Amino acid sequence: MSITLTTWSLEQTSPSDLRPAAPPEGGDVVVRRAEVPSAEFSRFLYTAVGGDIRWSDRLSLTYKQWQEIVEKPGSEIWVAYEKGTPAGYVELDAQADGMVEIVYFGLIPAFRGRRIGGHLLSYATARAWDLADRWPGREATGRVWLHTCSLDGPHAMANYERRGFRLFDTKVEQAEETETPGPWPGAYA
């Protein structure tokens, strides 16, 4: 079945654009960088976060292809943990000319609606702005950008806008609706 898919591209062009969210109350959420490039951990996060919202673009990648992505200089994965359990993640990709893309961002379904998303996005966006500090020889960040679509969670766009991201492009297209893959086939059937 064909569906209408809207994709919005958003950006920040200065670190002062970032409007951080307050950390969740209780102090049990920490955000840490996954410093050891691991295809397995990255794929776990990708499927756990994106399985119910039809993330499928990477599911056909081989182990080697996935490992190349996580080992790319300037690629970083930041994970939010609640009481030691992964709650969500952000994948950053340093690109040419001082650009950093937030390639993936989201929460595992059980952790949505608990004020973790705004905190994680704020923290990771700040890490996108200071990414060159961790990667000697990389140009300082001059732009942080991302895209979201009409298949993402209902609060995604508002969260990006509250954090100071501005819309710079919108695309509407017809796409074939895909099965919800879940973290494993049939998980959300």
Task: Give a verbal description of the structure.
By secondary structure, this protein is an alpha+beta fold. The chain has 5 helices and 7 strands, in the order ββααβββααβαβ. A 7-stranded mixed beta sheet has the order 2-3-4-5-6-1-7, with helices on both faces. The protein is globular, with a radius of gyration of 16 Å. The two termini are 17 Å apart.
Topology, pairings included?
Layout: E1 2-12, E2 29-33, H1 39-50, H2 63-71, E3 75-82, E4 85-94, E5 99-107, H3 116-129, H4 131-134, E6 143-149, H5 156-162, E7 166-176
Parallel strand pairs: 5-6
Antiparallel strand pairs: 1-6, 1-7, 2-3, 3-4, 4-5
In short:
With 189 residues, the chain is α+β, with helices and mostly antiparallel strands. The protein has 5 helices and 7 strands, in the order ββααβββααβαβ. Helix 1 packs across helix 2 (63-71).
